[in-house]
Amino acid sequence: MSTISLAQSAGVLLPQNVGIGEQASGSIVLNPNDWQNVAGIRVIPFQLPNSSANAAPNLSDYLVEINPGQSFPASGAFSFKVEQNLKLMIKSAGASKAQPVTLNIPFPSAAITAPPQGFTTSPIAMGGLMQTIRGPFQGDASNASVLLNNLAAPIIAESQSSLFYLAPENTPAGSADVLVKDKDRKTHFTVAVLSLQMSADKLNLLKGESTAFHVLVKGAESLPPESWWGGEAQGGDVDTLHKLLPNFHPPTGLDRGYLVLIIENLSSNVVMSGGQKIALTFTYPQSGKYGYDGTLTATKAGGFVVNGTLIPFLRKQPGTGASTDGTATSSDSQTATALRDKAQQLRTHSDTLRQQNSGNTDSRVRKKIEDEIAQDNSNADKLDQLAYDLEKASINAANGQGSSTISELRKDASNQLNNPVLQAKNDEPQVPAKPGNTPEHPGTTSKPNTPGTTEKPQETPHTPTTPEIPKTPTSTPQTPDNSTTNKKKEEKNDCPQRGKGCVALVIDFSADYSFEFDMSTVSKKLSDAGCDTDYIAPKFKDVPKESLFSTPTAAEIKAAQDHNQAQWDSVNDAEKKHREKVAKGVEIAIEITNGHGGEAAPGLPCGDVEPNDWRGSYLRRDDFHQGNYKAANKNVCSWFTADLTCYGGLTPKVVDELENLTTATCKAASTIACGNHAGWEADGSMSSAKSTDTCTNGSVWWQSGYVKEALDAEIKRRAAGQNKDYSTLIQALNSSTVKSTTARYTDHGYAKDHPPVHARGGYGEKSSDEQ
Questions:
Q1: C-alpha distances in angstroms, 70 versus 81, 415, 768?
Q2: Contact partners, residue 762, CB within 8 Å, separation at least 6
Q3: Closest Cα to residue 134, out of 149, 151, 122, 150?
């Protein structure tokens, strides 16, 4: 019996845009038609002989030969050097008599282009589809690997500027970790894996019958806010999008990005609500689900087919350098880590610039900010490269291999680490928001864009080893011979600000949202307790932005921006006014913040407090409390703060550092330096959440109740005429109130405190509630 060989369609996948002499890698696939329109990939179809009569071909049965004697399994990637005419031979790996296939693949005479400095990829991935990573690669896929959630992903092709891999088909939707390794250099990404889920209530319809259908983009909620900035289209049928929306323009890097979902009815026997093709957009923050519900109505009986295509217009995600394999010296390894940390600070700074200038319509300002963002990213890439070069040289030296560059690399690293990466928040570059107006911060009026920062002269910080000595009166009369003298002596040993009243500042971002628990009741109780209270509840407006369906006028955009800036101005003014009152001397100073809290992040080590939606600015916890501490320091009997937001435990951490170190980084280990405490009698801080946790409306309501209880008791005392001072309120706030909350810090002030115990908890320190 003779064997009949059948031809099977196959294809060679190669990277596009490679130069003669460049190292590159490709692969063989059995579904070449599926790759014809994939960006960055060149497809060369051919017929692969099948050596079995009835069995489908298996790529593991074949070899790819580049040069005589240089063969690779056809089931994996193969590497080659780009020539004007690349000759490939695909042949059987066994004893098959099938004839080899010879391919002559021409390459245009293009020079090798310089690879990117750093690594970037799309912030999203989809199972079963190709993903692209741009970066300075070696081009040899045999020395590269990609792990997606610790599972190997096959590499399709590689050049010296790009790597293409296939996301595993069964990757679940949601946040995913990507680790790419090229030779001995590793880079880490966090991406969101998306899946498009489509369903219908009925799959077969009678004539005239209707059914609901549903489209859901799963995993989009795991995209972090910093990924929702504009970028070029990443795959998808952009031509169809332009036909549906002729006036469509991709978002720029300073505009919010979006996902475009194209839904197309492919069946002639049903009519789809909204038209046979519709385009939907999703952006950040998204209200509701990332999906669509529609209706199909049959014009005649039968089934139907509806297709969905997702096109992201999101910025590329920068990679984070990871430690090189091998053992470098401890000092070089620490230096490399510090360089990578500094690179992340630069990338965080670029995200902050985007936030601060989103919606700015001045082309001159936008160009300047875009240039600064590009410079930040370029410098970050250089720091990552330096970290890798230093580690590599150190490993080589440790292995006995000479390295003539290691001393220069160490010197360069030292210079980079000793130069400032970011300017202080209240000293950012001056960029005019509009002609004739040069604000202190980009995209704002002359008020600071970070409301928690005020212009104050630099102060020399105190350290725990040199605590500030409180200036409390200690002299006594020389002849204490009567009761009046004893009374004066007792007063001399009391707080200098006793009886000077209560001053409170409440900043309530949640009051603008009906579904969030606000601080209006707490504010009223503060006033009823006799406190001079400033209650700030800003009401912001959405800044209209160009979308697929509307284009706001410049006047509409400016009106909303001006309104929001006025709201931030009111926050700034209240903060300044509060600090001025405190600095004059009061018995107790209170600050309460309520809204949405941000966790610690590069560039924001203590997080922030802001409204539910992005409104152009935010309160930095470190700056806000630092300014309040300076105003209160030795000017109060007690300083009390409450942070009723997610990750609010960072506020007690800030207060702990200020009270004992006089500066706040949210990184220092807790210590005790009583002379640095702001208040004479007691200082405290509380939050409804730990420094690493979110919180709920319920916890805000419940734990703000502890403050209300203390204020209710004070209101009753004052109604009974017992209003000489606030010593009882101070004791309540700094004992039962603080110690009942999720995160807390208390001390006994600069005059009464004694080491070594302070009450701490909820921010990474060992909890201690005994003093």
A1: 12, 46, 68
A2: 649, 652, 687, 689, 690, 691, 741, 742, 743, 744
A3: 122
Which of the following CATH numbers is that of domain 500-761: 3.40.50, 1.10.1740, 3.10.450, 2.60.120?
A: 3.40.50
Mean pLDDT, 10 residues at a time, the chain of 771 residues: 54 92 93 87 86 68 84 92 90 77 88 82 92 94 95 95 94 94 91 93 94 93 88 69 71 85 91 87 80 92 91 90 82 88 86 76 83 88 90 85 80 80 35 30 32 36 34 35 44 84 96 84 94 95 72 86 92 95 96 93 89 85 94 95 94 92 84 87 93 85 88 92 89 80 90 71 63 38
Nearest residue to 157 (alpha-carbon basis) of 170, 144, 176: 144
Query: Which structure tokens are listed for 251?
Result: 């978002």
Structure tokens at 162: 């790009």
Radius of gyration (Cα) for the chain, nearest Å?
Answer: 33
Pairwise CA distance, residues 692 & 269, whole Å: 55
Helix axes 363-398, 406-418, angle to 10 degrees: 140
Chain-centre distance of CA 713, in angstroms? 43
By DSSP bridging, strand 532-536 and strand 502-508 are parallel
Angstrom distance (rounded) from CA 6 to CA 618: 67
Taking the C-alpha atoms of residue 656 and residue 746, their distance in angstroms, rounded to an integer, is 8
Tokens of 52: 């079995």
- Residue 465 makes CB contacts below 8 A (sequence gap 6+) with 673
Q: Write down the pTM of the prediction.
A: 0.56
Task: Considering the domain delimited by 120-317, tell me its CATH architecture.
Answer: Sandwich (2.60)
DSSP secondary structure letters along 517-553: --SHHHHHHHHHTT-EEEEE-----PPP---SS----
User: What is the C-alpha to C-alpha distance for residues 621 and 646, in angstroms, rounded to an integer?
Assistant: 12
Tell the burial category of 146 from Cβ atoms under 10 Å away from its Cβ (0-12, 13-18, 19+): buried
**How far, in Å, CA of 327 to CA of 323, rounded?**
10
> Nearest to residue 157, comparing CAs of 31, 23, 303?
23
Q: Measuring CA to CA, how many Å separate 224 from each of 191, 227, 281, 321, 371? A: 9, 6, 17, 19, 23
